[in-house]
């Protein structure tokens, strides 16, 4: 039984959590939605309570008026000795004299000793009186019921049976009020109430939305300041922030400063390591060459392999450290154009065609890393091309690049790389053809740098017949 109760409670909670998860993940939307819904619920509850109270007060007042008219009617009517009902009731309301007004009174004999009945001039035909079995009298010998009036309206009847004299002659006194009129008044009041509260609610929601937008504006300032930091136009969050937001800005600035110190420390350590290993490796290589023979060649070969390994991992460590820099931004168009000019001068027998967009593309990273990536790929293309190399830059839409910003294509008309060996070419130190000079690290370094920036590098068959290298990197 307890498990069933727990499941019964858990199901609505799970549905509520699922509904909250399905809402747009915008703080402004959620705050405005919940405050507006709460305001509407509160206004509906207030309107319902006021309408209920107004109905209760109106019905109580209506009943009091009927009761006062009934007592006045009883006091105004008597019976003569010969059994006639006489009296000139003046209830102080002109509606009792207006035909079919919905307000009537009547005095009807109950005892056989009474012969006639009295009616208001507004009552043109009798109104049915239910039996006492259907509607009973209370202890004050009164009863109240609703009937259809002569004009088709609903009337409320207050009835009493009164002993007129010592002869125990009894007459039935009835005062009838227009119930339909009362219901119309209550309905009109409710309509006006809901209209006024609706206008008030719309105004309140508009003011609420305005206040929320004003209150959340500092968060927009924080976002703009962070965007400036990422764009490289600022180094820290600055500006007048409210007391609730100021600690967040201070902690963010502290985090940025700590990140900057970590990066500088990593760069220093990388530089120190490179300098500390440079001299011992140079000594080993010189000793190997001086020793000569098989042992010298062995020492020289392993020392060169160590040098390659160190260059590779130092390059990767530097890229990883620079990847964490928030403000690193580098122009792509200018960098590629300059590298293309250098490549043409170094390879006068090759023809290099470049295609650049009109818009300026900015790389979200260090210029040295961009030069390292494109330089290795361009050098490889110029080395293996027979005659033609094509270098093109293409900006990408966010939907096409999954958040990345531009594509660089380098194609040549050389022998190319078979598809089954393209992945092997990206491994460090792997050379598929020993006929050309090189260390086998260029493509591997480019692949590692691209990976550090969250980009992609693909080697495919070029439309020129050779290799097609496609690099996709993030843009600012």
CATH superfamily of the largest domain: Histidine kinase-like ATPase, C-terminal domain
Output the helix-strand order.
HHEEEEEEEHHHEHEEHEHEHHEE
Shape: rod-shaped
Name the poorly predicted regions. 428-440
**How many discrete structural domains?**
3
Tell me what the CATH architecture of the largest domain is: 2-Layer Sandwich
**Straight-line distance between termini:** 60 Å
CATH topology of the largest domain: Heat Shock Protein 90
Annotation, overall tally of beta strands = 14
Layout of helices and strands, plus pairs?
Blueprint (H helix, E strand, L loop, with lengths): L1 H21 L4 H50 L1 E2 L5 E2 L17 E6 L8 E2 L22 E7 L5 E10 L6 E9 H53 L14 H46 L1 H31 L6 E2 H15 L4 E5 L6 E2 L3 H18 L3 E8 L2 H4 L4 E7 L6 H7 L16 H11 L3 E6 L5 E7 L3
Parallel strand pairs: 9-11
Antiparallel strand pairs: 1-2, 3-4, 3-7, 5-6, 6-7, 8-10, 11-12, 12-14, 13-14
Helix pairs in contact: 2-3, 4-5, 5-10, 6-7, 7-10
Features:
about 475 residues, Heat Shock Protein 90, 3 domains, 5-stranded antiparallel sheet, about 55% helix
TL;DR of this structure?
The protein has 476 residues and is an alpha+beta fold.
Task: Give a written overview of the molecule.
The chain has 476 residues and is an alpha+beta fold. The protein has 3 domains: 56-185; 251-323; 330-473, Histidine kinase-like ATPase, C-terminal domain (Heat Shock Protein 90, 2-Layer Sandwich). 54% of the residues lie in helices and 16% in strands. It contains 10 helices and 14 strands. It has helices at residues 2-22, 27-76, 179-231, 246-291, 293-323, 332-346, 367-384, 398-401, 419-425, 442-452; strands spanning 78-79, 85-86, 104-109, 118-119, 142-148, 154-163, 170-178, 330-331, 351-355, 362-363, 388-395, 406-412, 456-461, 467-473. The strands form 4 sheets. A 5-stranded antiparallel β-sheet has the order 4-3-7-6-5. The chain has a 5-stranded mixed β-sheet with strand order 9-11-12-14-13. A two-stranded antiparallel sheet has the order 1-2. Strand 1 (78-79) and strand 2 form a beta hairpin. Helix 2 (27-76) runs antiparallel to helix 3 (179-231). Residues 428-440 have low confidence and may be disordered.
């Amino acid at each position: 039984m307890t498990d069933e109760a727990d499941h019964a409670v858990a199901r609505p909670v799970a549905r509520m959590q699922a509904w909250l998860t399905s809402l747009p993940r915008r703080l402004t939307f959620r705050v405005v939605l919940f405050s507006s819904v709460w305001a509407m619920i509160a206004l509906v509850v207030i309107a319902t309570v006021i309408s209920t109270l107004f109905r209760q007060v109106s019905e109580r007042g209506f009943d009091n008026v009927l009761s006062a008219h009934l007592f006045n009617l009883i006091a105004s009517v008597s019976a003569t000795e010969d059994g006639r009902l006489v009296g000139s009731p003046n209830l102080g309301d002109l509606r009792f004299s207006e035909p079919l007004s919905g307000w009537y009174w009547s005095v009807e004999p109950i005892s056989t000793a009474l012969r006639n009945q009295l009616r208001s001039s507004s009552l043109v035909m009798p109104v049915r009186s239910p039996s006492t079995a259907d509607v009973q009298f209370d202890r004050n010998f009164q009863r109240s019921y609703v009937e259809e009036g002569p004009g088709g309206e609903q009337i409320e009847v207050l009835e009493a049976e009164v002993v007129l004299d010592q002869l125990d002659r009894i007459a039935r006194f009835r005062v009838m009020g227009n119930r339909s009129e009362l219901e119309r008044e209550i309905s009109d009041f409710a309509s006006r109430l809901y209209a006024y509260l609706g206008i008030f609610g719309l105004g309140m929601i508009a003011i609420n939305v305005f206040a929320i937008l004003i209150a959340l504006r500092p968060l927009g300032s924080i976002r703009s300041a962070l965007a400036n930091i990422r764009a490289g136009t600022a180094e820290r969050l600055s500006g007048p922030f409210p007391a609730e937001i100021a600690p967040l800005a201070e902690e963010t600035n502290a985090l940025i400063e700590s990140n900057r110190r970590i990066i500088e420390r990593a760069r220093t350590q990388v530089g120190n390591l490179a300098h500390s290993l440079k001299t011992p490796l140079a000594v080993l290589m010189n000793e190997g060459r001086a020793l000569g023979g098989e042992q010298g060649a062995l020492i020289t070969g392993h020392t060169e392999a160590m040098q390659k390994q160190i260059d590779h991992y130092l390059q990767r460590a530097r890229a990883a450290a620079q990847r964490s820099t928030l403000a690193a931004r580098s122009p792509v168009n200018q960098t590629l154009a300059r590298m293309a000019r250098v490549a043409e001068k170094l390879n006068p027998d090759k023809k290099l065609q470049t295609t650049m967009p009109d818009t300026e593309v900015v790389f979200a990273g260090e210029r040295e890393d961009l030069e390292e990536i494109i330089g290795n790929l361009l050098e490889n293309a110029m080395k293996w091309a027979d005659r033609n190399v094509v270098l093109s830059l293409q900006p990408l839409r966010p939907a096409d690049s999954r958040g990345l910003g531009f594509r660089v294509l380098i194609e040549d008309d050389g022998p190319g790389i078979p598809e089954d060996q393209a992945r092997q070419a990206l491994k460090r130190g792997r050379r598929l053809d020993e006929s050309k000079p090189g260390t086998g690290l260029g493509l591997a370094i480019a692949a590692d740098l691209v990976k550090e920036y969250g980009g992609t590098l693909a080697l495919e068959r070029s439309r020129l017949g050779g290799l097609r290298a496609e690099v996709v990197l993030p843009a600012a």
